[in-house]
Amino acid sequence: MQAHSFDYVRPQTLAKAIQVLSENGNRAKVLAGGQSLIPVLKLRLANPRLLVDINDLPGLAFIEERGDRLRIGALSRHRDFERSKLIRAKYPIFSDVASVLGDPQVRNLGTIGGALAHADPASDWGTALLAFEAELIARGPNGTRTIPIDRFFKDTFTTALRSSEILTEIRVPKSAPGDGGAYLKLKRKTGDFATIGVAVQLGLDTKRNVVGARIGLAAVGSTPIRATRSEKALIGSKAGPAAFAEAAKLASEEAHPSSDLRGSEEYKRAMIEVFTRRALESATARTGR
Amino acid sequence: MATKRKKVSPKRKSIRRDNGGHTITVAVNGREYTRVVEPRVLLVDFIRDELRLTGTHVGCDTSHCGACTVLLDGHSVKSCTMLAVQADGREITTIEGLSQQGRLHPIQEAFKAHHGLQCGFCTPGVVLAALELLQVENAPSEDRIRTAISGNLCRCTGYQNIVDSVAAAGEMMRSGKG
Fold first, then answer.
1. What ipTM does this complex have?
2. A-B interface: how many C-beta pairs under 8 angstroms?
3. C-alpha dihedral over A170, A172, A174, A175, to 10 degrees?
4. Can you give the CATH number for the domain in which A79 is found?
5. Which of A78, A172, B165, B172 is the residue whose CA sits 20 to 30 A from A145?
6. Which residues of B touch A104 (CB under 8 A)?
7. Which of A2, A12, A50, A103 to mutate to test the interface with B (most CBs of B within 10 A)?
8. What pLDDT, on a 0 to 100 scale, did the predictor assign at position B177?
9. Residues A90 and A124 both lie in one domain
10. CATH, residue A193
11. What are phi and psi of B72, to 5 degrees?
């Protein structure tokens, strides 16, 4: 398969990349890892005139704690999360994402920023970041803008990013004692998109009362979505089977799955319930409380 | 991984310079190639059609099967899901780069000895995925091996003999044989 013709530039500075994007508007597309964009081009679902390859831009690949945030460069590859000791020790939910996303070859090239900007409704990263008060940092011709994750996904394959902007960084609150999270994905085979996915991030106090809860759901809406009723029911309750059963049921009611080749609406709803319960159990175990 | 390869003469000019061609230089199996390519040309088509290295196979052409797997700076990638222009200035290893002076690489020896292939179509990709793993750990668990080859589909073997072959190759590399 071959894409339509397009031109290609590989700028060496962020300023130059933004300038090229500003000059070309919607005719240009940012190329990061390419693991979504290149299939889209080959299938001719998108026909940009120009690809702006950002892989040479310096300083966009890092995973580190700074101040009260975990800061992630948008060009970090999925494999970087699989191998990061910091992530494994303190943010295992992101290890979960990196180990179930695509396959090893895709994880070697694909980037977190690219996955977010692509905005697939089944996005593993989008779903996991909805479980945090995550901030997305975008650079454009007018400077830097911070977009809360709750306002980032507008529709399928559509985000709050402007055509002249580049997503440069993702920030999430630093992991605190009593925090724990997990991402569970139901898939038919390695490399497939999620049939459904559930991300849970919990905060427990020393008596195992839930003091913070955020839940993201994959592939059950036009974008990754939050299960806010489920979150509200959890906060203030005691972590355990009764609260988790109730929260899982609420999450399945909040999901809006469609029947497709990966399963019927009923099946996906039922699996949201099962996977929410399991993710809550796994997240709780990881709080260490 | 340098090989002594005869210079390939670019007989087939599938890419026209007047169509927005970009000049790229790619090191493939230790040898540098400079060519003019159209940006939309996929890395796999560049390797096969332009460099005439046809050991890298096109299976699904949709990023599912892994038959087109090559190493990019030591990491396995699907060459059907990357543009040739993106490989400018990078190092590629294809299946042709594994044997040294007619001697098979330990992974190739192990696949032969343990019946790790039947039709052989997926084999170049599987071998390169295995090479990425064995470069960093030569005593991987079965679980690690299965994860490493999870992006490669094989319709013949049922995978068991592939897993056995990769484990045996690790052993050979550990003991310094081959």
1. 0.95
2. 84
3. -120
4. 3.30.465.10
5. A78
6. 76, 129, 132, 147-148, 150-151
7. A103
8. 63
9. yes
10. 3.30.390.50
11. -115, 115
Q: Does A8 sit within 8 Å of B151, measured CB to CB?
A: no
Q: Tell me the pLDDT tens digit for each residue of B137-149.
A: 989 999 999 999 9
Q: Is residue A58 part of a domain?
A: no
Which chain A positions have a beta carbon within 8 Å of B88's beta carbon?
10
pLDDT of the residue at B108:
98
Question: Which domains are assigned to chain B?
Answer: 22-96 (3.10.20.30), 106-174 (1.10.150.120)
A164/A70 same-domain check:
yes
Length of chain A: 289
Residue among A41, A53, A191 whose CB faces B86 most closely: A53
B29 has pLDDT over 60:
yes
Task: Determine whether the interchain pair B78/A10 forms a contact, defined as Cβ–Cβ distance below 8 Å.
Answer: no
- Given B40, B86, B151, which is nearest A104 (Cβ)? B151
| Contact state of A106 with B61 under an 8 Å Cβ cutoff | no
Q: Which residues of A132-143 are buried (b: 16+ CB within 10 A; e: fewer)?
A: bebbbbbbbeee
- Statement: residue A286 has pLDDT above 60: yes
**pLDDT for res B20:** 74
In degrees, rounded to 5, the angle at the alpha carbon of residue A255 between the alpha carbons of residues A253 and A256 is 115
Residue B128 confidence class, pLDDT cut points 50, 70, 90: very high
Closest residue, chain B, to A52 (C-alpha): B86
Q: Are strands A166-173 and A158-159 parallel, antiparallel or unpaired?
A: unpaired
Whether pLDDT at B163 is above 60? yes
Q: Residue A241: count other Cβ atoms within 10 Å of its Cβ.
A: 10
Of A41, A8, A50, whose CA–CA distance to B85 is shortest?
Answer: A8
Residues B171, A246: Cα–Cα separation, whole Å: 51
CB contact under 8 A, B151 and A55: no
Residues of B in contact with A105 (CB under 8 A): 66, 69, 76-78, 81, 129, 151
Interface test with A, best of B77, B88, B149 (most A CBs within 10 A): B77
Mean pLDDT of chain B: 91
- The one-letter amino acid code at A216 reads G
Tokens of A30: 């940012």
